Amino acid sequence: MPVCLPQNRSQSSGSSAAGLEELVDEIIAGGEDHVLEQDIAHWREDLRKRLEQVHQHPEQGLGFIEEHVRQATLRLQRLLVQKAMQDKANQVEEKCPDCGEPLGHKKRRVVRWVDAYCGKVKLVRTHGWCPHCEHWVFPADRALGLRADSTASPLVQEMCALLVSKMPAEQAEALSLRVSGHRLSRSTLAREAQRQGDQAIGVRQKLVEATVVQTPLAKAICGLDQRPEPFTLVIELDAWNIRERDKWGQTERERRKDPKFDRWHWVYTGTCFRLSHRCKKGRFKNKLRPIITERSYVATRGGLEALMQQIYYEARARGLAQAARVLVIADGALWIWNLVEDRFKDAVQRLDLYHASSYLWAVANELHGKGNKEARQWVKPLLKEVRNDQVAKVITQLEELKPRLAAAAAKAADQTIEYYRNNQKRMKYKDGRKRKEPVGSGAIESTCRQLQCRMKRCGQFWSTHGDEALLCLEMFWRNERWEMLFPHAKLTAVANN
Ligand SMILES: [Zn+2]
Fold it and tell me: N or C: which end of the chain has fewer CB within 10 A?
């Protein structure tokens, strides 16, 4: 059965193979490279044979057609990338990219292989010495965005960063083969993701240190201009533990030096959003799911100061200066509230209701046994009082009860009393409900859970260097700043709009 392939532009109706052919035609029209014309003839013949095979097998459906077209075209794509890359390299002047000085001691036609998304491609370029900067340099490598310490092309760099920030490298290796048709080895994936993460940390540092907030969150900025009415900015903070293997095998020695030495460390996380961006969605009225349509994220192993610097930046990007009311929700951890006093002095503070309730539940469980009906009956009226801002009443009741309790229950009661006393001013839930504000820090807790799904798998150990790099990449992705790291990603966004 004959296979029809588009012969010219008017027949090519937007399929990827046809689009490629157009591109090839353009490249050929612009140059005199006859090798490519031959390649296209080969590709066409290869594709014809492959598709003929599919027709001969009635059991092979569209999946086989897709796979054959992909495999045949991937080879052609590799040649196209190689040619276009070489053309660009040939146009680069033999000058120092840093100072513009002509290069000396030039060595032409130095070969390097690049791992592109479609396979290995060969690049031939000039090497030279800049007498001004006193360094050896490949001007073409710079122009192409190739690094001296990596064989990965920019698109592969991005793929590694994206995949490894979402899943372990060994999973990403298998996935890369099926999704892109080209295998990225797990060592390339891990190494490249680390490099990109390190760079992302540098970019983030420059961002948060700048006085002007540069935000790609266009919608938030538009919203600010179009709707000048007062809005509430919600900030939620939390922390979770990650296990690191720095100084592996030296635990005892490190403990002798510092009794507090531990392999578990805090990852500080935060999110901020406008109250108006929180809504409920769902197909059925009685099963609505709360969602936040636009929000910013922070996650760092860099300590409290880093968290505060980053969350302050994100809050500014969400309009902190224009907010009529700023609300911070978190659990009772002292470090959080000290920092809130420092950085968000005028913010309304709210203790996460779930954490507040868990203290009363601990008393109930000690009194009546965990999961018992009596425990539920005992705690119910007290929880109601907490929800209705009658914390003082709850504290009084616990104090009256305490002398009659057994040791364990008395201890739980004591802890509750202390916790409530410390946080009393943060327990205004009735007011919160009236304003339709969240009373719990569920938004950040679900984010923490998602991050833990990646970072806290069975047997996983990290280094501070490694986990911070991946967390940083993930935040660039979530905060819609990915294109700051990988500018070519803009093209996909444009093509899909
Ligand atoms: Zn120079």
Answer: C
Tell me the pLDDT band of 44, cut-offs 50, 70 and 90: very high
295 closest CA partner among 107, 447, 487, 100: 447
pLDDT tens for 1-14 read: 343 333 443 333 44
**Is beta strand 232-243 parallel, antiparallel or unpaired with respect to 325-330?**
parallel
Report the separation in Å between the CA atom of 108 and the middle of ligand 1, taken as the mean of its atom positions.
18
What is the Å distance from ligand 1's center to 99 Cα?
A: 4
Distance (angstroms) between ligand 1 centre and the Cα of 147 equals: 17
CA 15–ligand 1 middle distance (angstroms): 46
Tokens for 439?
């009373």
Residue where the block lists tokens 């100061």: 305
Cβ neighbours for 202, distance < 8 A, ≥ 6 positions apart = none
DSSP 426: G
Tokens representing 297 are 């994220």
Q: Provide the residue type at 359 as one letter.
A: Y
CB 20 within 8 A of CB 80: yes
The DSSP-derived string for 43-91 is: HHHHHHHHHHHHHH-TT--HHHHHHHHHHHHHHHHHHHHHHHHHHHHHH
Residue 21 has pLDDT above 80, yes or no: no
CA 265 / ligand 1 centre spacing (Å)? 44
Q: Could you read off the pLDDT of 351-389 as tens digits, one per residue?
A: 999 999 999 999 999 888 888 898 899 999 999 999 999
Amino acid identity of residue 316, one-letter, is R
Residue 492 alpha carbon to ligand 1 centre in Å: 35
State the average pLDDT for the chain.
85
Band (65; pLDDT cuts 50, 70, 90): very high
CA of 150 to the centre of ligand 1 (A): 22
Residue 122 alpha carbon to ligand 1 centre in Å = 26
Picking from 21, 28, 164, 162, the residue whose alpha carbon sits closest to that of residue 492 is: 162
Going from the Cα of 166 to the center of ligand 1, the distance in angstroms, rounded, reads 39
Contact 360, 385 (CB under 8 A): no
**How far is the centre of ligand 1, averaged over its atoms, from the C-alpha of 91 (Å)?**
19
SS3 40: helix
**Separation CA 263–CA 259 (nearest Å):** 12
- The CA 146 to ligand 1 mean position distance, Å, reads 18
Main-chain dihedrals φ then ψ at residue 83, nearest 5 degrees: -65, -50
Over range 246-270, report the average pLDDT.
75
For 455-480, the pLDDT digits (tens) are 877 766 777 778 899 999 999 999 99
**Ligand 1 centroid, distance to 426 Cα (angstroms):** 59
